[in-house]
Amino acid sequence: MIPRYQKVLFVILLIAALGMGFKLWQLRDRAHKRLLTGQTIAPTAAPVVAPAEQATLVVANDLDNSLMPQMHSLPLPADRGARARAILGKLLDLYAAPESTHEIPGGAASVDQVFLVPAQRAKDPGDELAVVNLTGTFAASHPAGLETESLTVLSICATLRANFPNIKEVRFLVDGVDRPTLAGHADLTRTYLTSDAAPMEGTRP
């Protein structure tokens, strides 16, 4: 025989559970209606497209181990770090193209982030250090060889210098951490001076 107090307690709990269930159903129904109303009246926002601007890409050529500036028009965001990432992404897109003069797979997705901070050996207050964070996939798939790796590093440094005169130094990370070399040869533990990455004179279309 079930004691009377247990029956009363059971009834109270059952009523409370039913009440809570009904309340939750009402809240869910209201939220669903608000969502549908918002979808009906909310205007469709046009995607924000950055305006196209001229950028200088300093492109490596494996045939003569040269660096040659090229002018390209591409959409560039206002934020300087994002701008630098977009420019380097375009450079690596060129290297991933079938007709590339410096064949490297990966393309724009190989540049994860670019951070701009005060230069370590600043001569002027506005001098900057660019920290280029590359992906591990890019480093793993990069062709090995001192000349090939050095051309990649120098072309990145020279491209940053051509578009951001205040960038005097460049450091490289891979997946957010220090890495000894790019693909076994080019030193990534050092800070590169952009002045050491001056391209040859002339511009190709």
Shape: elongated
Proportion of β residues?
A: 15-25%
Q: Can you list the strand order of the major beta sheet?
A: 3-4-5-6
Order of helices and strands: HEEHEEHHEE
Low-confidence stretches: 201-205
Look at the structure and give the mean pLDDT: 87
- What is the share of helical residues? 25-40%
Main β-sheet, in a few words? 4 strands, mixed
Number of helices: 4
Distance between the termini: 95 Å
The quaternary structure here is single chain
Which features would summarize this protein structure in a list?
alpha+beta; elongated; 205 residues; two-stranded antiparallel ribbon; 2 domains
Explained architecture:
This protein is α+β, with helices and mostly antiparallel strands and 205 residues long. It has 4 helices and 6 strands, in the order H-E-E-H-E-E-H-H-E-E. It has helices at 4-41, 80-96, 136-141, 146-163, and strands spanning 52-61, 66-75, 111-118, 128-134, 167-174, 192-193. A 4-stranded mixed sheet has the order 3-4-5-6. Strand 1 and strand 2 (66-75) form a beta hairpin. It is elongated. The chain starts with a helix and ends in a 12-residue tail after the last strand. Mean pLDDT is 87; it is low at 201-205.
